[in-house]
Amino acid sequence: MPSASETGAPAPARLGDDEFAIRVEDVSVTYRTPLDRKPTLKGRLTRRQDSGYREIEAVKHVTFDVRRGAVMGVMGANGAGKSTLMRTVAGILPPVSGRIEVVGRVSTLLSLGVGFNRDLTGRENVMLGGLAAGLTREALKERYDEIVAFAELEDFMDMPMRTYSSGMYGRLGFSVAVNMEPDILVIDEALSVGDARFRRKSFKKMRQLCKQDRTIMLVSHSLGSILDLADDAIWLDKGELRMQGEPKAVIDSYADFLGVEEDAVTMDDV
Amino acid sequence: MTGSSLLRIATETSKPPARGLKGRRPDEFNAERQVYEPHRVGLPPIGPYMRELWRRREFAFELARTNMRAQHLDTVFGRLWLVLNPLMLAGVYFVLVDIIRKGPSRGEDFLAHLIAGIFAYYFVSGSVREGARTVTRRGRLVLNTAFPRVLLPVSSVIGHFLRFLPTLAIYAVVHLVTGLPINANDLFAIPLIVLFTMVSLGLSMFVSTLQVYFRDLAQFLPYLLRLWLYLSPILYFADEVPDKYEIFIWLNPIGALLTAWSDVLIKGQAPSLFLWGVASAWAVGVVIVGGLFFMSRERDFAVRL
To answer: How many Å lie between the alpha carbon of B69 and the closest alpha carbon of chain A?
Structure first.
């Protein structure tokens, strides 16, 4: 099993300088997280001993390349560091060591949705999300109808998002992320939202993006989705890169590791 | 241009980036390369950060406008409330500090001074009060999108500047009705407004960072702001302050500023060089300290929300 850990084991095949869209080199991400859910001044002043923080090594010496125009599937158990790695690739979290090189504009759809404020309308959220992501107002206006049509939310755009169902939430998030015409799309566990029909539609859209030479990083617990869409896959375990390779091979090893059969359930969600 | 420059050390472009040009599609810049590396110092590289900030200024404006819409401040009654609220507050304080006290009333000049001072103070304190929660309330956005986080406190200041403008019109009416002088010195109000804005921004950046670490700060803030109002030369003229307490005017970030504000608007005279010096020093200092504090901490926000 090829492994790239901190021991400096042979790194996975590197791509040439003009072939990769994302290059992750020996990246580690560590952060201190407060044990209190909400740190307060009162809490700080009244706590007897100062043990309010825990150091979390979320990603440890991970190295891999993602080829331009490819879909990279990312799998791993809960807490394996997938989301942290995705946020680091998107430039939201800083690496503690190592280096990440990204060629092109990144659009993200991470586990919490697209930064939506539930009290604002769908329209306002799309505008704010797009502007924050660096699009111009003109570009957003151009794409707005397409975003709404893809999410099938024409009648709901002027309603506060707290009135949306979770499926509608997910559809709008996905639609915004894919319609920003990103060079690189980072999707974290977003495929389980929406019904079977929307899911099929989102697969089709992602394939279409790949044909346009755009790159996708797809984090999913659904091994079926990765098998179906990915050209390459990585498996993260406790922050380390356990394996990179053909999706089928990585899925087999990962399923072995989890001790589960590749049945209908695991292919759908593990 | 992509992602954020928050973490960017080096940016290489294969063609010159046409930043800030409206109407250009961002995918024209897709040959761009971003490199994320650990910061060697606490601060992101200032140049690219500022450029990215400028490029995404629309976001700050849109966020400010959306917030005002959410509070229905875009309706007629909303706008009315916006000016009535500080005006009524000025009325309450006028009753409190001028009518219910010994000695003769300080008259119309004092009423105008009080109104001008309260309006300016409202701009600063409103920015700070909303600024405190501006990062923590946008947790989802901060966790999902990479952008210069300074845009958040900037948007809170923009929002309160937009609320401040109509109150200036009300002040103008008060100024005319009370028969205060109108002369060229009134134009000094413009640079003073710039200084008020700088203080608002600096303090907003400062408290919004603190709020990430101490979530109860926003609860203490109203008391501090109330105290700040009483320590500022608003409910009294600066020259009424006894000599031994005068130091508190200069130690107050808006003390000299409000004194100059009253000099210009009420007395119709140019502020002294000393006042300009103290007011500008505070404004510049607060922006630099608040900005550096915010920017050196903002990489940490995503893991603390």
So the answer is: 9
Structurally, how many domains does chain A consist of?
1
- Order of strands across the sheet that contains A232-237: A106-109, A184-188, A215-219, A71-75, A232-237, A240-245
- Is residue A44 one of the residues assigned to a domain? no
Q: Span B247-254, mean pLDDT?
A: 94
What value does the mean pLDDT take over residues A125-143? 89
Give the ipTM.
0.82
Q: A115 and B22 in contact by Cβ < 8 A?
A: no
CATH of the domain at A121: 3.40.50.300
Most confident of A1-5, B4-8, B98-102: B98-102
What is the span of the domain harbouring residue A84? Answer: 68-94+104-268
Q: Decide if A93 touches B, using CB distance below 8 A.
A: yes
Nearest CA in chain A to B145: A133
Mutate which of A20, A42, A56, A93 to disrupt the B interface (most B C-beta within 10 Å)? A93
Q: How far apart are the first and last CA of chain B?
A: 26
Instruction: Note if the pTM is more than 0.90.
Output: no
Subunit contact A92:B24, Cβ cutoff 8 A: no
CA end-to-end span of chain A: 22
